[in-house]
Amino acid sequence: MPVNASSERATLILRFFVPYVLILLGSLLAGWFAYHKTSSLVESETMKSNAAALGQIREALDGRFAEVETIAQQMASESKIQSFQFVKAPFEKTNPFRLWDLEKSLFDYRITNHFIIDYFIAYKNSGMFISPRKVYDAKQFYGLQLRYDGKSYEEWRDELFGRYYYKTYKPGRQVWYEGKPYSVVSYMQSFGTKDGGGVIAVLIDNKQIQEMLRHIDAEQGGFAYVADQNGNLISYVGMDPSTANMKALPVKEGFSLFDWNGKKMLITQTTSQYNGWTYVSAQPETVVLAKANYIKELTLTVFMLALGAGLAVAALLAYRSSRPVFKLLQLLPLKPGGRKNRPLGNLMDDIRSSVSALVESHGELSSRLEAQVPLLRSVFFDRLLQGGYTSMGEVEAAMEHARMELRSGYFAVSAIQIRGYHAPYNEEMLTELDIVKLNIRDAIPPIGPGVQISAQAHDLGENKLALLVHGEGETPDDFMQGVQRLVAQLHDHVKQTSHSGLWIAVGTCQTRLTEVYRSLGEAEFLLVNAAWSDRQPILFYEEAEVPPPVYFYPSDVEQRLIQLVRSGNEPETARLIGEIREKNEGSGPLPVVAHKLLAQELSGTLMKCCEPSFANRDALTDEMKVVLEVSDPAWSPDEAVQKLFQALMQLCRKHEEQKRSHNDTLAAKLMEYIDSHFPDPDLSLAVLAREARNSEAYVSYFFKEQTGMNFSDYLEHVRMEEAKRLLVGSALPVSEIAVRTGYLSLNSFSRAFKRANGVSATEYRKISRPREA
Question: Considering the entire predicted model, what is its pTM?
Answer without folding.
Answer: 0.40
